[in-house]
Amino acid sequence: MSNQQTVTAPPRSSFVTVLAWTFIVLAGFSVLIAGMQNVVLAFVLPMQDMDDMVGMLSQEQNMPAAVIFFVRHIQAIMLFFLVMSIATLIASIALLKRRNWARLVFIWMLAISIAGNLAWPFFQYTMMSDMLPFLGDLEHEFGAQIQMARYAMFAFSCALMLAFSWFSAWLIKRLAAPEIRAEFNA
């Protein structure tokens, strides 16, 4: 008879498996899309042409600063999205393998997404306000409808932000739960 004790690993929850596979699929598509966007930006839309367009629009039409910033830094922004997509894919695969670092990365990514969700409707509202001067005669002719559409989009963005933030907070709570943490410490 041996004196060895067998240690049994905690059962693997379907929550972690489904979460990991969901993000593997989403991140996989995201890597594909972000990769294609980076290729298009690198080979189809030369930055010199983008800079010329931004210069023309900012001088002739007084474009909002946020639009100018986005267009001028589009390559860096798209590269950032590609890197984040790859990082999410790697973390998702590691989450499926029950690596604790991946669980912690997911908690941080979800927390950052909550912050972004909370900021987005206000950024959107500011951008829409900055774009009103570009409507010209349309604003005078359809002012009430445009205002109503702005408020409806803002309300929808806020509702969506709250839903995504709540869901992200719920995922963080589940990933931090003792029974889930036990799966990663085994």
* Percent in strands: under 5%
- Low-pLDDT runs: none
Mean pLDDT: 85
Instruction: Note the total helix count.
Output: 8
Compute the separation of the termini in Å.
Answer: 26 Å
Largest sheet, if any?
A: none
Coarse structural class: mainly alpha
Give the number of domains: 2
Describe the secondary structure blueprint for this structure.
Blueprint: H1 14-43, H2 47-60, H3 65-72, H4 74-96, H5 100-131, H6 137-141, H7 143-176, H8 178-185
What does this entry show, briefly?
The chain is mainly α. It is 83% helix and 0% strand.
What does this structure look like?
The protein is an all-alpha fold. It has 2 domains: 13-97, no CATH class; 100-186. It is 83% helix and 0% strand. α1 (14-43) runs antiparallel to α4 (74-96) and α5 runs antiparallel to α7. It is elongated.
